[in-house]
């Protein structure tokens, strides 16, 4: 059992400490922003007492996803690159639709 714990400690050190650099820091910052979109969505839904996707969700998705794409490109991870690149199109499209909806609503008011 002590051997397993020692191997786990060595693995954790190798993964989280030994290879730590600026790119790993960027990856953690990116993941933080990407994860914040779920917190924002959850809080907005709790306030509304129904499922809500606020505009901040899409901005956190876009910012966090962009940083994660940069990180994935630097790591040369094709699966991660493909996933984040596709997501960026979806986030931009949703923000575009929201902007068009607001513009149309402003035109109706005038």
TrEMBL record:
Residues 26-97 form the Lipid A biosynthesis N-terminal domain. The keyword Transmembrane helix applies. GO terms for biological process: lipid A biosynthetic process. One of its GO terms (cellular component) is membrane. GO terms for molecular function: lipid-A-disaccharide synthase activity. Keywords: Membrane, Transmembrane, Transmembrane helix. The chain crosses the membrane at residues 20-40, 52-73, 79-99. This is Lipid A biosynthesis N-terminal domain-containing protein. The lineage of its organism: Bacteria, Pseudomonadati, Pseudomonadota, Alphaproteobacteria, Hyphomicrobiales.
């Amino acid at each position: 059992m002590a051997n397993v714990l020692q191997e786990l400690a060595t693995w954790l050190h190798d993964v989280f400490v030994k290879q730590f650099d600026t790119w790993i820091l960027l990856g953690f910052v990116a993941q933080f922003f990407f994860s914040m979109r779920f917190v924002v969505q959850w809080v907005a839904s709790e306030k509304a007492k129904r499922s809500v996707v606020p505009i901040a969700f899409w901005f956190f998705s876009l910012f966090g996803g962009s940083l994660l794409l940069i990180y994935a490109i630097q790591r040369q991870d094709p699966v991660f690159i493909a996933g984040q690149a596709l997501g960026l199109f979806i986030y931009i499209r949703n923000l575009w639709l929201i902007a068009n909806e607001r513009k149309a609503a402003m035109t109706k008011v005038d």
